[in-house]
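Possible regression after last week's pipeline update?

I re-ran a chain I had predicted before the update to compare outputs. Posting the input and the new output here so someone can diff against the archived version. Not blocking, just want to make sure nothing changed silently.
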Amino acid sequence: MAYDPRNAASEPAPPGIDIRPLETIAQIQEAAAVLRQVWEGDRDAMPPNLVRALAHSGNYVVGLYEGDRMVGASIAFFGPPAERTMHSHITGVLPGMQSHGLGRVLKRHQRDWAFAREVGHITWTFDPLVSRNAHFNLRVLGARVTEYLVDHYGPMDDGVNRGDETDRLLVTWALAAPPAPTPPDEDVVASVAVPRDIETMRRSAPTDAAAWRVRVREEFLARLAAGLVAAGFDDERGYLFVRP
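New output (post-update):
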Protein backbone atom coordinates (compact mmCIF):
# COMPACT_ATOMS: atom_id res chain seq x y z
CA MET A 1 0.00 0.00 0.00
CA ALA A 2 1.33 3.46 -0.90
CA TYR A 3 2.37 5.74 1.92
CA ASP A 4 -0.30 8.39 2.57
CA PRO A 5 0.70 11.46 4.65
CA ARG A 6 -2.93 11.93 5.55
CA ASN A 7 -2.71 8.74 7.62
CA ALA A 8 0.51 9.81 9.33
CA ALA A 9 0.46 11.58 12.68
CA SER A 10 0.90 15.31 12.24
CA GLU A 11 3.73 16.94 14.17
CA PRO A 12 2.16 18.16 17.41
CA ALA A 13 2.54 21.85 18.08
CA PRO A 14 3.88 22.89 21.49
CA PRO A 15 1.26 24.26 23.91
CA GLY A 16 0.16 27.77 22.95
CA ILE A 17 1.47 27.47 19.37
CA ASP A 18 -0.77 27.38 16.33
CA ILE A 19 -0.68 28.15 12.62
CA ARG A 20 -3.18 30.46 10.94
CA PRO A 21 -3.75 31.63 7.36
CA LEU A 22 -2.90 35.30 6.85
CA GLU A 23 -6.04 36.96 5.56
CA THR A 24 -5.87 40.65 6.52
CA ILE A 25 -3.49 43.44 5.58
CA ALA A 26 -2.48 43.80 9.24
CA GLN A 27 -1.54 40.12 9.45
CA ILE A 28 0.43 40.29 6.22
CA GLN A 29 2.32 43.40 7.33
CA GLU A 30 3.14 41.68 10.60
CA ALA A 31 4.46 38.65 8.70
CA ALA A 32 6.66 40.89 6.55
CA ALA A 33 8.03 42.49 9.73
CA VAL A 34 8.76 39.07 11.25
CA LEU A 35 10.64 37.96 8.13
CA ARG A 36 12.66 41.20 8.14
CA GLN A 37 13.78 40.34 11.68
CA VAL A 38 14.73 36.80 10.70
CA TRP A 39 16.75 38.07 7.73
CA GLU A 40 18.25 40.87 9.80
CA GLY A 41 16.72 43.97 8.28
CA ASP A 42 16.11 42.97 4.67
CA ARG A 43 13.13 45.10 3.63
CA ASP A 44 12.82 43.07 0.43
CA ALA A 45 12.58 39.68 2.17
CA MET A 46 8.88 39.52 1.34
CA PRO A 47 7.11 42.77 0.39
CA PRO A 48 3.58 42.94 1.88
CA ASN A 49 1.95 43.64 -1.51
CA LEU A 50 3.46 40.44 -2.94
CA VAL A 51 2.42 38.42 0.12
CA ARG A 52 -1.10 39.80 -0.28
CA ALA A 53 -1.20 38.80 -3.94
CA LEU A 54 0.01 35.28 -3.20
CA ALA A 55 -2.51 34.83 -0.39
CA HIS A 56 -5.42 36.19 -2.42
CA SER A 57 -4.64 33.90 -5.35
CA GLY A 58 -4.86 30.79 -3.17
CA ASN A 59 -1.24 30.07 -2.32
CA TYR A 60 0.19 28.97 1.02
CA VAL A 61 0.59 32.03 3.28
CA VAL A 62 0.54 31.34 7.02
CA GLY A 63 1.70 32.76 10.31
CA LEU A 64 3.07 30.83 13.27
CA TYR A 65 1.62 32.19 16.49
CA GLU A 66 2.50 31.97 20.15
CA GLY A 67 -0.81 33.08 21.61
CA ASP A 68 -1.63 36.29 19.75
CA ARG A 69 1.99 37.06 18.83
CA MET A 70 3.29 36.05 15.43
CA VAL A 71 6.69 34.37 15.81
CA GLY A 72 7.14 32.92 12.33
CA ALA A 73 5.75 32.82 8.81
CA SER A 74 5.86 30.60 5.75
CA ILE A 75 5.01 31.37 2.12
CA ALA A 76 4.82 28.95 -0.81
CA PHE A 77 3.34 29.09 -4.28
CA PHE A 78 2.15 26.55 -6.83
CA GLY A 79 4.31 25.38 -9.72
CA PRO A 80 3.23 24.34 -13.24
CA PRO A 81 -0.16 22.57 -13.03
CA ALA A 82 1.01 19.41 -14.78
CA GLU A 83 3.83 18.95 -12.28
CA ARG A 84 1.60 19.15 -9.18
CA THR A 85 4.33 20.93 -7.25
CA MET A 86 4.53 23.77 -4.77
CA HIS A 87 7.65 25.84 -4.13
CA SER A 88 8.27 26.91 -0.55
CA HIS A 89 9.94 30.27 -1.04
CA ILE A 90 10.48 31.46 2.51
CA THR A 91 9.96 30.11 6.02
CA GLY A 92 11.30 31.86 9.08
CA VAL A 93 11.00 31.75 12.86
CA LEU A 94 12.14 34.61 15.12
CA PRO A 95 15.62 34.04 16.57
CA GLY A 96 14.36 33.71 20.13
CA MET A 97 11.97 30.94 19.07
CA GLN A 98 14.38 28.88 16.96
CA SER A 99 15.64 25.41 17.96
CA HIS A 100 12.29 24.57 19.55
CA GLY A 101 10.97 22.31 16.80
CA LEU A 102 8.79 25.03 15.28
CA GLY A 103 10.33 24.72 11.83
CA ARG A 104 9.27 21.09 11.79
CA VAL A 105 5.74 22.02 12.88
CA LEU A 106 5.52 24.50 9.99
CA LYS A 107 6.82 21.99 7.44
CA ARG A 108 4.36 19.30 8.55
CA HIS A 109 1.51 21.80 8.29
CA GLN A 110 2.72 22.82 4.84
CA ARG A 111 2.88 19.18 3.76
CA ASP A 112 -0.67 18.44 4.94
CA TRP A 113 -2.00 21.64 3.32
CA ALA A 114 -0.32 20.80 0.01
CA PHE A 115 -1.33 17.15 0.01
CA ALA A 116 -4.98 18.11 0.59
CA ARG A 117 -4.76 20.16 -2.63
CA GLU A 118 -3.36 17.26 -4.68
CA VAL A 119 0.20 18.57 -4.68
CA GLY A 120 2.69 15.73 -5.00
CA HIS A 121 5.99 17.51 -4.28
CA ILE A 122 7.23 20.54 -2.39
CA THR A 123 10.53 22.12 -3.42
CA TRP A 124 12.67 24.75 -1.73
CA THR A 125 16.24 25.99 -1.63
CA PHE A 126 18.74 26.40 1.17
CA ASP A 127 22.36 27.46 1.57
CA PRO A 128 24.54 24.31 1.35
CA LEU A 129 26.98 25.78 3.89
CA VAL A 130 24.39 25.93 6.69
CA SER A 131 24.79 22.53 8.32
CA ARG A 132 21.76 22.81 10.62
CA ASN A 133 19.52 23.35 7.59
CA ALA A 134 21.11 20.44 5.75
CA HIS A 135 20.52 18.24 8.82
CA PHE A 136 16.89 19.34 9.06
CA ASN A 137 16.05 19.10 5.37
CA LEU A 138 17.83 15.84 4.56
CA ARG A 139 17.96 13.89 7.83
CA VAL A 140 14.82 15.05 9.61
CA LEU A 141 12.42 15.63 6.70
CA GLY A 142 14.04 13.21 4.28
CA ALA A 143 13.96 15.57 1.29
CA ARG A 144 16.15 14.81 -1.74
CA VAL A 145 18.77 17.06 -3.32
CA THR A 146 17.89 17.66 -6.96
CA GLU A 147 20.18 20.50 -8.09
CA TYR A 148 23.12 22.70 -7.07
CA LEU A 149 22.41 26.33 -8.03
CA VAL A 150 25.40 28.69 -8.29
CA ASP A 151 24.75 32.24 -7.00
CA HIS A 152 21.06 31.55 -7.50
CA TYR A 153 19.62 34.85 -6.21
CA GLY A 154 22.56 37.12 -6.98
CA PRO A 155 23.64 39.71 -4.39
CA MET A 156 21.30 39.99 -1.40
CA ASP A 157 21.44 42.97 0.94
CA ASP A 158 20.51 41.42 4.27
CA GLY A 159 22.38 40.57 7.43
CA VAL A 160 22.41 36.85 6.62
CA ASN A 161 23.64 36.91 3.00
CA ARG A 162 25.34 40.29 2.53
CA GLY A 163 28.80 39.98 1.01
CA ASP A 164 28.41 36.32 0.06
CA GLU A 165 27.40 34.55 -3.13
CA THR A 166 23.98 32.93 -2.90
CA ASP A 167 24.68 29.32 -3.85
CA ARG A 168 21.70 27.12 -3.04
CA LEU A 169 20.70 23.48 -3.04
CA LEU A 170 17.29 22.73 -4.50
CA VAL A 171 15.54 19.92 -2.65
CA THR A 172 12.34 18.04 -3.40
CA TRP A 173 10.04 16.58 -0.77
CA ALA A 174 7.83 13.79 -2.15
CA LEU A 175 4.64 13.95 -0.09
CA ALA A 176 3.34 10.47 -0.88
CA ALA A 177 6.63 8.66 -0.26
CA PRO A 178 8.51 7.69 2.89
CA PRO A 179 11.32 10.11 3.84
CA ALA A 180 14.53 9.45 1.92
CA PRO A 181 16.81 7.58 4.35
CA THR A 182 20.45 8.45 5.04
CA PRO A 183 22.48 6.01 2.89
CA PRO A 184 24.32 3.21 4.71
CA ASP A 185 28.08 3.60 5.02
CA GLU A 186 28.78 0.83 2.50
CA ASP A 187 26.96 2.79 -0.22
CA VAL A 188 28.73 6.12 0.38
CA VAL A 189 31.50 6.68 -2.18
CA ALA A 190 32.28 10.37 -1.50
CA SER A 191 31.41 13.24 0.79
CA VAL A 192 31.61 17.03 0.93
CA ALA A 193 32.34 18.54 4.33
CA VAL A 194 30.83 21.83 5.51
CA PRO A 195 31.68 24.00 8.52
CA ARG A 196 29.73 23.33 11.70
CA ASP A 197 28.70 26.98 12.12
CA ILE A 198 29.10 29.08 8.99
CA GLU A 199 26.97 31.92 10.43
CA THR A 200 29.49 32.58 13.21
CA MET A 201 32.40 32.16 10.81
CA ARG A 202 30.97 34.81 8.47
CA ARG A 203 31.12 37.32 11.32
CA SER A 204 34.43 36.30 12.88
CA ALA A 205 36.43 35.08 9.86
CA PRO A 206 34.79 36.21 6.59
CA THR A 207 37.81 35.22 4.48
CA ASP A 208 37.59 31.66 5.76
CA ALA A 209 33.84 31.64 5.12
CA ALA A 210 34.38 32.76 1.53
CA ALA A 211 36.94 29.99 1.05
CA TRP A 212 34.41 27.44 2.29
CA ARG A 213 31.92 28.70 -0.30
CA VAL A 214 34.32 28.03 -3.16
CA ARG A 215 35.51 24.70 -1.76
CA VAL A 216 32.02 23.28 -1.24
CA ARG A 217 30.84 24.53 -4.64
CA GLU A 218 33.76 22.98 -6.50
CA GLU A 219 33.62 19.66 -4.66
CA PHE A 220 29.84 19.36 -4.91
CA LEU A 221 29.74 20.15 -8.62
CA ALA A 222 32.66 17.80 -9.32
CA ARG A 223 30.85 14.90 -7.68
CA LEU A 224 27.66 15.64 -9.58
CA ALA A 225 29.64 15.86 -12.84
CA ALA A 226 31.08 12.42 -12.06
CA GLY A 227 27.56 11.03 -12.03
CA LEU A 228 27.17 10.72 -8.25
CA VAL A 229 23.99 11.56 -6.36
CA ALA A 230 23.81 13.60 -3.15
CA ALA A 231 21.79 11.14 -1.08
CA GLY A 232 22.03 12.39 2.48
CA PHE A 233 23.84 14.36 5.14
CA ASP A 234 25.97 13.39 8.10
CA ASP A 235 26.80 15.87 10.85
CA GLU A 236 30.48 14.84 10.85
CA ARG A 237 31.19 14.05 7.19
CA GLY A 238 28.81 16.50 5.49
CA TYR A 239 26.96 15.63 2.28
CA LEU A 240 27.02 11.95 1.36
CA PHE A 241 27.22 10.81 -2.26
CA VAL A 242 26.27 7.46 -3.76
CA ARG A 243 26.23 5.93 -7.20
CA PRO A 244 22.80 6.07 -8.89
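Follow-up from reviewer: compared with the archived run. The beta strands are 17-21, 60-66, 69-78, 85-93, 121-126, 144-149, 168-174, 190-192, 229-234, 238-242. Marking as no regression found.
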